[in-house]
Amino acid sequence: MYVGLAPPVSCSPNHAIATYAIAQHLAGRDVEGLPAFSEIPPRRLRVLTAASWGRADAVGSEFDHLPADLTTGLWLWMAELFTYSKDLTPLELDAAGTLMLRLGYPERAARLLGVTDVLAGVPAFPPDVRPEHALARVAVCAQLHPSPALVVAQALRAVADPRLPVMIRLMLAGFAIPLEARREAGSGALHRAVRSAEQALTRWTDVDPEHRWVERKVLRSLSGAAVRRGEPEAASAYLDRAALSAMETRPRGGLRRLAWDEEVLALLEAQGRVCRSRGDAGGAVAATSRMSDIAPYDAHAWAAHGYALLASDRLDESLHAYEEMLRLGGHPVAEAAFHLGWIHESRGDRRRAQDSYAYSHAIDPTVPAVRERLSSFR
Predict the structure, then answer these.
(1) Residue 239, phi then psi, degrees to nearest 5
(2) What is the pTM of this model?
């Protein structure tokens, strides 16, 4: 789907179905009916998918340069629509920019979103911007800026800026806090942003239910920062609040249920990390097992569950999880094959281990850990 916008099939992951739905609504000029999708797939999805097909000609950075044999009618319609982007409404331009970001074309996304100077860091936000489109704007800047850490630093400062709308401050907190926590969990900037985000949450009242995902994203971010600081109880408390909020807004079906499922997957993954941080391997396995129940065709769900099983030394069950991931095909096969190799090696089956490592290396020869394991068999 990410290469050419082919229609999703029965085994497509939820994030691909969501991306296709955005394109369909754009084609029908009906973006008002789109729910907010709070997670943006990584830009490498398209590149890795094309590479897994052996199509180096499809990994370029320009949307219009995709080889003709890979394009679909919807892809071509998007290209024509963007050619006459001056005829699009502001909301359609925002949706178009978000689509380009999800498809891995941040340069085109920046032009559509009106982010003309990524060197300025955090962009200006229109007064009526939707939070998911504000997130797309700052994500574009972080992807294209030569120093992404500067964008994160500016976002952290903006979290504490009382002149900005509370919703924008919270959206920036949900974006920047996880990145800063990975960089330096004890930084003063992170501490100030956490405190400001907590204060902003208490002031955000009469929230449109469509925007409650912003609150939950912030709570997940605060939970992740607490894990990094070695505070698992605080991390659990944040996630409990996020889970309660999610259950209060659970939709019955359609695209809103799809968007809600994406959120729940992120919550369950975060819960697994919190459980591992406090030594509860069984809790991590239980949380991540629900991920594969919700999204059985999402390689990331199986990867999270497989890792939790590995961490609890349940090798047979982990083997099954990575085999399920392997069956999905495409770019995740390299990761699945590497972990299968590690499991086979741990069980003393060196032939299968070597075959799995070789398979992983053949798909993605850039991973040092795979090369290292392969070299040990020589």
Answers:
(1) -65, -35
(2) 0.89
